[in-house]
Design brief:
It contains ten helices and no strands. By secondary structure, the protein is an all-alpha fold. The chain has one domain. Helix 3 packs antiparallel against helix 5 and helix 9 runs antiparallel to helix 10. The radius of gyration is 18 Å and the shape is globular.
Length: 243
């Protein structure tokens, strides 16, 4: 059973990457969209643009991972291919994990491109590579789980896009991307602490400054928690929809 699940997750993720993700429009949009927002903010508030790199990486990972992830399941349900996948001898959790792995692989790829450019411009400095790798991986998992939850929670593609943007755009402005949490009013700080992007940006900032792994354990644990909290109900809803 475990062997079938692992094989199914692998082939589902490969299928999705080929069919949906690695297309020129998706790649260019996944990279240019976060760059455009960060560049607009940098022009409006010139200063040390290096401080914007953690937010840029977080945004790229968020949108690169969750954009297609939020609509793939809805699309496949409409054309009937999801039902064929659900007949395979794998668990619903494995099926959904395969979908998430596709989104994670794409998000990490485009984020890797942005990270390479950022390091080439600003230099690597004292980066904690282990913390950086863990943060990127756990953030991608949390954002993919968010996309999967959105995708199973709705029935139409436009509903998935609307719901995903309803969640992502507030995260973009409240997650510490442009404004440090300490500079926000207390009420907004409370809301920011309910968003996975907040913890991703904090951990990325710590990693790029060379902080120790232990200094970001709360952020990493929070990302694991968001993944679990979003993944479990997504599997449940997918199972109910299959009945």
């Amino acid at each position: 059973m475990l062997r079938d699940d692992l094989r199914g997750m692998f082939y589902i993720s490969i299928k999705d990457l080929r069919a949906y993700y690695f297309k020129p429009p998706n790649i260019s949009w996944g990279i240019l969209f976060p760059f455009a927002f960060v560049l607009a903010f940098a022009i409006r508030n010139p200063g040390d643009t290096r401080d914007l790199v953690p937010g840029l990486l977080g945004l790229t990972l968020l949108f690169g991972t969750s954009s297609m992830e939020a609509i793939v399941i809805v699309f496949e349900r409409r054309i009937g291919s999801l039902e064929r996948l659900m007949l395979a001898p794998i668990s619903l959790g494995a099926l959904l994990t395969g979908k998430m792995l596709g989104g994670m692989a794409f998000g990490l790829t485009v984020t890797g491109v942005v990270l390479t450019v950022a390091l080439a411009v600003f230099g690597a400095g004292s980066v904690n590579w282990l913390l950086l790798a863990l943060t990127l991986l756990l953030s991608a998992a949390a954002f993919a789980a968010l996309g999967a939850f959105v995708s199973v929670a709705v029935r139409e593609i436009f509903e998935a896009q609307t719901l995903a943007n309803f969640v992502r755009f507030p995260m973009m402005f409240l997650g510490g991307v442009f404004t440090p949490l300490a500079a926000m009013p207390p009420s907004l700080q409370v809301i920011a602490r309910l968003l996975p992007l907040t913890y991703a940006v904090e951990a990325l900032r710590a990693a790029l400054k060379g902080a120790s792994l232990g200094s970001a354990w709360v952020d990493l644990a929070a990302l694991v928690g968001f993944t679990a909290v979003l993944f479990a109900p997504a599997v449940y809803i997918l199972g109910r929809r299959a009945e």
